[in-house]
Write a structure and sequence with these properties.
With 503 residues, the chain is an all-alpha fold. It has 21 helices and no strands. The protein is globular.
Length: 503
Amino acid sequence: MEPQETLTDRPDGIRVAIPFAAIVLAMLPAVLDQTILATALPTIAGDLGSLSDVSWVVTAYVVAAAASMPLWGKLGDRHGRKLLLETSLATFIVSSALCAAAQDITELVVLRMVQGAAAGGLMTLAMAAVGDLVSPRERGRYQGYIAAVFAIATVVGPLIGGVLVESASWRWVFLVNLPVGIAALAGLRLRPPAPPTERPEVPLDALGAALLAAATAAFMLTCILAGDRYAWDSAQILGLTVATLVLSGALLIRERRAADPIVPFHLLRTPAVAIPSVALFLATAALFAITVFVPLLLQTATGATPTEAGLLLAPAMLGITISTTLSGRSIARTGRYKRFPIAGLALMTAALGLLAAAASDPQAVTIGACLIVFGLGFGMVTQVLITAVQNTVERRELGIAMAVTGFFRGLGGAVGAAVLGAVFAAQAGSSVSDTGSGLGSVVRGDVIDGAQGVFLIAAPLAAIALLVVLRLPEAHLRTKVEPARKNSNRADEFRPKEVSTQT
């Protein structure tokens, strides 16, 4: 019988907590950045450009992050994650300082692209590093801790951003990343230095990485800009669509010939990776119905301010924290995980259906109750599916596997925003956009109709994800970290060297 002792069960489990805390702290700037920045965008628009121009500050970051994830994952698998995580964090810190010093909107957008690319590395490499650090059975519990930190950051971020903008300057929404990032960098540097890595036997698929990044950027720009800045049948959108198809075709041809392809087709053909990736895509798309349209509904129907509407999302974050923590502890105890995303997606579907019903006469208490149900569901989906993927792949491919899950989540967000935004526009009609920034009683009914349409579309997305997860194979969760193999490219970097990992 396999021994049940894990790294975190040992007396020296505290040695795992130190690098884990550094890893979480490394991810924190990337998580806080978007939530803090949201409240500063109107002020940035007034200083550097217009509201239409400042939207590129967000778009550049999101597209660069998604497009760079596969490359970061592959580099981490080939050369070790510790140095690359430090590099991406240092790049994020420097680019944050430069963003704070930007003098025009073009300069800020370019720097946000660099910052987004660094954030893609932070998220991908940090999630893979957690897989290096603890055994598969313990990963659910540690992923729960990460989700709790993210949930808190989502609620606290807008408040911090509002305080910084009102009491200091919008530039401080970037400067606040510096102390957090420097502290995380110091924590990562405290770990013992990694020994030299073995030189990869085949060269990096640089052309494949470039084609993937370009195809991803074209696709995401199509989703973000179509129906908003440009009409679906405009020359710009048609050009982006053609570029997406051409670049995707060239990528497929290239990857079939590459010795070490950047796109892990062999992983995508594995049900244990493909099914979670599709489910994450759909769940993230459904999530946008909550994060984007619930605050809009509350502002319109209840007269809440933007800050108050953001705070009313706290029940969802509370639900996510509770369910992720409890499911992670259960997985660590029993080794079973499939039932959690099934239950979670069922709760998400029910919550979105209830929101569609409650939107006709929205009350803060009713909406809050629905958000708690949604949060309880969503908390059992994302981190658990990531744990399932980490349990399946070999450690030498852990980085690219985490890049795949992050990539599909990014695509899900872009597609979800585009589809649900189109549904909202179609249901609400032109009066909402004609009103400008005001959300008075004239358009209240239109906004309610639009939000109901969004919830009614998002609910089937969650239901489809539920049907997909039903086919997820449930493999036995190992209670030991997989030993590093030859040419595994230093998956041991984050793990305490005194702890044996023999199964």
